[in-house]
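Lab meeting minutes (informal)
Scribe: AK
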Amino acid sequence: MVAVTALYRRYRPESFADVIGQEHVTDPLRQALRADRTNHAYLFSGPRGCGKTTSARILARCLNCVQGPTDTPCGECDSCRDLARDAAGSLDVVEIDAASHGGVDDARDLRERAVIAPVRDRYKVFIIDEAHMVTTQGFNALLKLVEEPPEHVKFVFATTEPDKVLPTIRSRTHHYPFHLVPADTLSGYLTRLCEREGVPVGAGVIPLVVRAGGGSVRDSLSVLDQLMAGAGPDGVDHDGAAALLGFTSGPLLDDIVTAIGAGDAAALFAVVDRVLAAGQDPRRFVEDLLSRFRDLIVVQAVGERADAVLRGVPGDQLQRLHHQASALPPAQLSRAADLTSTALTEMVGVSNPRIHIELLCARILLPSSDDTQRGAMVRLERLERRIAAGAVTAAQTVPGAPPAPPAAALPVSAGPPAGGPAAEDDGGAEAPRAGALADDAPADDAPAVDDQPSPTDVATGPAEPAASAAEQPDPRPEAPSGSAPAPAPAPVDGGQPPAGDDPVQAIRRLWPEVLGDLRTRSRATWSVVSEYADVPARCRGRSCRGRGAGTDGPTGPRAGKPL
């Protein structure tokens, strides 16, 4: 039975040319080896799994190769074979784990071993891994040796936290910082590795592996090894990889973004319930949601060139991202990303993350709860989109009157005979409405008929055209034929209201209540009516005069004329 080793062990680099994503480190080292200008101590720092210890081993092979020092080990000599990926190691290359051997006694033992000449190779190389775990006393014991080592001794310190290395030690080394491997470089490397292993992978699987690895080559290889171990005859599919790695599936994220764009709270909370009911890690779910918002912001910013930024995203998913980005205003999308990022920070160590997720969804859907400028921008964008879609019309914003009938279609009222009495108010007639009193003054006082409605008419609604005297029903019973005509009543002074209840005074009493009710119904209409409309101060029959506020405003050309 053939023993199967892990991927990161089978594909461990054996030369600087095989190290990916660290050219800023490998190129200077290779140049120093070619020029034979190597230092006696090096410090390799960087995140885990990015090649620090591997590069230290390669450096030892390059120094002790029979053809060396060289930047490319031959791989044939005893030293190169002893330091190969599957070999047991060399006696002249000592690896020390400072996590368990970082005390002062271990440092003294190392100092005693360093003075002994190499057994076979050119140099005795000490690789101290996790160097930040060495105690201060241990570093102080090594200080003199690191500062002035024997000619046959080389030190390589590897650490993830260079700040914890004693400054006096760090100042005596050549420091090379390692970085996380870029996603493009790592994706290409993993794709080639899958081809060499003969395992097919579905679309979108490699980006999931890269994301799970976080830029670490070793972590990414471990994740890919796990997926390959559980792959079926068809290889590794996207849904299975997402479920195994704990990522939120793409359709669920699509449903969430669609619900946010439509403002559908019921659909949004239903998707959240489905995610949590399936056992999804709440914090991972919020991370995936934040990642989706980031992708949408990128799509909105760069448009059709988003594929150059979102490398590795399948074409169908990229089309969905374009569709979702067009449905969300930029301010709302940016605000949702900020709220999600804040919620992700606040979810550390909480006992009930479901509450935080639901509150996050509520804040995203309710920009009115945000009294900052960002919330105001979201509300403004929503209003602009509704107006553009025809949901809000000008008639709904400021109610207006229907077009006035042509002047020729209006009935012409015959004025009373000269010296005759003015038309009396009909006691049974309906009281005139505020701002819509009919003007039935004599011909010498009546204004000319306007073709356009006045601002007062627009604010208070359509005005009823005055009926002619012949068309007005006479509430008094007709006198029997042959009887003498009734004596004409005395003329009523135009400055005094008729006897009985004065409708103008009633309107003036109710006018504040009318304005208050109108303000609760429509603030736009209320602002127009309260500014331009006024209650008449006096009446002559059905002709009323305002208190200096005409239909064109207090200073308009029609100021003081009948309403």
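Next up, CB showed the second protein from the same session:
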Amino acid sequence: MSEVAPLNPFTDLGGVVSFTSTKIGHARGQRRAGVEDNPELENKSQSVAVGRRNPMDLELNLEMLKVLRQDAETRCNEASSHVQELERELQFAASRVQKLELELQHGLAINGELQQQTAQLRSALEESNNDKEFFFRGFREREAQLRVAEAQACALEIHTSELIDQTLQASTSQSQQQLMATVKESLGVCSLCQNDYNKARLPSM
């Protein structure tokens, strides 16, 4: 940015010029009052006033005024260009602010989506944990049922073995009894047969 020259209090600030003019007029009034009281001073002041009306002084004053005017115009142009540059910078800053606002809105939208996704993931994780707990609870229940079934199977196997042993024992005892009866019957028949055979061999009297 271009540097602005310091302001001239006599050309750039109307308030300062007005204040200075007021002070000068007040001083002139005081001097006028002193001159009127002193005739000699009044004559000197009139001669000075006549000298000030010299055309050379007027031309010099006009040249000075022209220079001051040109300087004022230059400073005014510089100030205008500075204002225009500030306006351009202000417009750039405003566009930058709008861009940042759009980026902020986009970031807020993304943040909202991320929060929603996070909530969904948290809900899914809770459901997964619940399902896992339900699965393990069911697995533990099934494991307990399996253990009970295994115990029942073992007890049934023992009971079956006992029944088989009892059945075998009963069957063996009954078979032995039947065998003894059969043997006894067989022996009895053989005795009768032997007696008949002996009688048959004896000579008849």
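CB comment: The radius of gyration is 70 Å.
No objections, moving on.
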